[in-house]
Structure formats: C-alpha cells, structure tokens
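Thought: the user wants the 3D structure for the chain below. I'll pass the sequence to the structure tool as-is, report back what it returns, then summarize two notable features.
Action: structure_tool
Action Input:
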Amino acid sequence: MSTRMKDIAAKLGISIVTVSSALRNTGRVSPALRARIRKCAREMNYKPDLMARGLATGHTFLIGMIVPDLMHPFFAATAKYISRNLRANGYNLVISSSEDDPQLELEEVESLIARRVDALLLASSQPSKESDVFRRIAEVGVPYVLLDRPVDGLRVPFIGSDNEEIGRLATEHLIDRGYRKIAYVGVPILGVGSGRLQGYKVALRRRNLSVSKSLIETVESADERGEECGYSAMQRLLSRHPRPDAVFCLNDIIASGVLKAAHDLGLSVPGDVGIIGVSNLTGISFWSSFQVPLSSVDQDVAAIADRTSEVVLQLLNPDAKAASRRVLVPLKLVARNSTQGPTGEGIQGKEPERPDRSNASQSHYA
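Observation:
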C-alpha cells in the first residue's frame, strides 16, 4: 500500500495540514520542520497523487519552458538545473524549442497552454512586447518569466545578465591585454545583441578608441549555425583594412567559428588576433572544439537557474512575497590563452585539443 500524507503525519505526530504545506512549499512551516517532513517522506517513499492533487487545486504542476535551441549548451544546462529545482518542489518541467522562430514560438506557447501548464519560462525570440505571443499569454492569464532574453516594456519578471555590462567587460579585457583594433561579431537579437554591442562601443569610447563600422559584423545565427556564421564573419573581417587584432563574439559558439577561421588562415591566437566569447561553455559542458582555450564571460548558469526557479515558485505561491521584477546575475570574466595579448605565444597549426578545464574557475575583473 502506498504511503499517504496521514501516514507521515502520524509518524511525526503532526497534522496532515502541516505535512501538506511542507510538501507543497506553502503555508507557514519552519525550515527545520519542513526539512524533517521531507526527509520522512523520502524515507517512507511517499509519492504524491498528482491527478487527485490537480483536481483538488486546479493545477497541473507542470511548468512550460521554451528556449531557442535545445542543443545549445547554455540553454541545456539552464533547463537541467531548473528542472532539478522544480522537481524538488513538486513540479515537472516541459521543455520546447522555438528554433529562434517567432511563429513557431507562438505555436509552442499554444501547445503548452493547451496542456494547462501552471506557468511559462520563455527565452523569447519575439521582436517586441506587442507580439502575439505575449497577447495570447495575457488572455489566458498564465504567469510567465522571461529568461536570458529581455523584452523592452514587458512588466514581467526577467532573470538573466546585464548585456551591456557583458560587452563592456569583454572589450575592456581585450584593451587591457594590449589589443587596439577590436572587432565585434553578433546577432541583432533585441536586448542581447544590441546590449552587448552597446557595451562594446561604450568600452572603446571610454578608452579613447574609435568605433569603426568595418569592424562590426552582424550574423544570422548564434546557436545552431553559430559556428558557421562566426567562421564566415571572420573571413570577411580579415579581408578588410585595417584588419582586427582582436574579436569580441556574442557567444562562445560564434567564437569557435571565429577561432577556426583564424587558425585555417594561418594566424596565431592570441599573437596575431585575440578572441573572447560569452557563456563559458567550457565550464558548463564538454565543449571541446576550441583549438586554443577560449577566454569568456561567465554568466553563471546555475545562479540564473536558481533565481528563475525561485521567482516562478513565488508567482505560483499566493502566500509568498512578491516576485522580483528584474534579476541580473553577477558576471565574471574567465581569462584563458586566447587573449594573452599581441605578444603572447599563440598556438598555430595544431590539431584541436580539449581546453584546460582547470582554468575554468579562474576569474578576473569580476
């Protein structure tokens, strides 16, 4: 016979209401007692009856998550941590991919609404707050959180990074390492691409360096085709005069293509050209396509996932305090071989090797 809440209550000598509140993360239960109840539930192999629970509460205990690319290590790691956090609180995560297509994103939102998810997490591909996706979500009244990609003007919680600060941090690092003709390669994603490009420009101007249109490359994809787009962008940059001596890339996937193009053209990294990305994929995955260990701005995926989980649970708990509207997770710059400076010894003509993961925790300019 399966364990019931009243069995846990009887064993601990407390009320069923207290057990229910602790397991559902509602009500006023002290942290110590909540931990004791959950420990007992695990020991007694308690499994909640989700169907009965849903009928009683009107909830499905499902949370939908839509990301632009399920294969992208940043979003895959974020989803993994969020799923783990929500599972510990009695919710399951349903994940979909928009493939960075606004229309497909709308279709995925409709599908998740049809499944009666209790909330949505969106790394949205929508161009503005007036998009049909947000109107549709407002119609049905499903609470939602924007993840990683901000949308100007939407008065909903956003969890992610300060993109302008990312651009400033990466560009100033390159300047501090002695580079002066610094290029930027990114995509025109509102909030992400525009913010990082703005930070790049701010850093150059603060250091009395000119912003040259010939050193700014906009590409179509930063995800599924990001490496290919980065490769082509670097070929174009290297065909111009003046040729860049460093490149700040919107993310590590684009940076991998930029680095490969430099390598194939016989350039030394970091001696001839320095390269920096964003996301620190080496630190969150087994990404191993870098010929030179890549410097990167670490967005702290685990912290983004933790804060996202906290905020969505607050939205679903009427007894909780109001959810934060805007959470920017602190950044850190992880300096590796790809930005040692123009006089640094580059790696040239070598077969790709796995980056030195021992450097992943080393940060500068945090």
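Final Answer: Structure generated. The chain has three domains: 5-47, 58-161+302-328, 163-299+331-359. The first helix runs from residue 5 to 12.
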